[in-house]
Request: fold
Amino acid sequence: GAVVSQHPSWVICKSGTSVKIECRSLDFQATTMFWYRQFPKQSLMLMATSNEGSKATYEQGVEKDKFLINHASLTLSTLTVTSAHPEDSSFYICSARKGGGDTQYFGPGTRLTVL
Amino acid sequence: TQLLEQSPQFLSIQEGENLTVYCNSSSVFSSLQWYRQEPGEGPVLLVTVVTGGEVKKLKRLTFQFGDARKDSSLHITAAQPGDTGLYLCAGANDYKLSFGAGTTVTVRA
Reply:
């Protein structure tokens, strides 16, 4: 199997606070983990790519100081949205690459609402 | 600008009918993946196609990768209400995925 979990599944926070989202590969060691965001009625947009023990690579237009990614082990990556604002409200989804291929397995997503 | 163009954007059909979703690009991909996503959930992998011209069948679903590895199609035979969902294609290069905008499929009972 290739199961990826995310925690929490949803979170509501006040503007200016920080929120941490965890992504875990449950039954495999992930070569690489990815973070996406998805706005309503839109497709997935890649935010960053992370490998265990190294700094994440951010896509153009994504603020690395706002979206902190830590990839502590081969099964865990975290995304911290710092000083969140209402425009950061979105559906955040992580994925993990298993082995040497291109295939990514996705987590169930985290719905972030910033008030 | 979407790297991958998916069509149609919406598709509503009667149970038992067939449907085809297309995914086109001017870029060449090392592989192409199809996912299905339910509201409020993450995408679930349906298939990965790697070789140009490859055809893969998954029960009533048939996936084809173009010879030049730039386009793909998903064909569903005798669609059922359980096939309702958002279908996404994603092309891979350097292990990163670029997603199409998605096709919302509704199968009416």
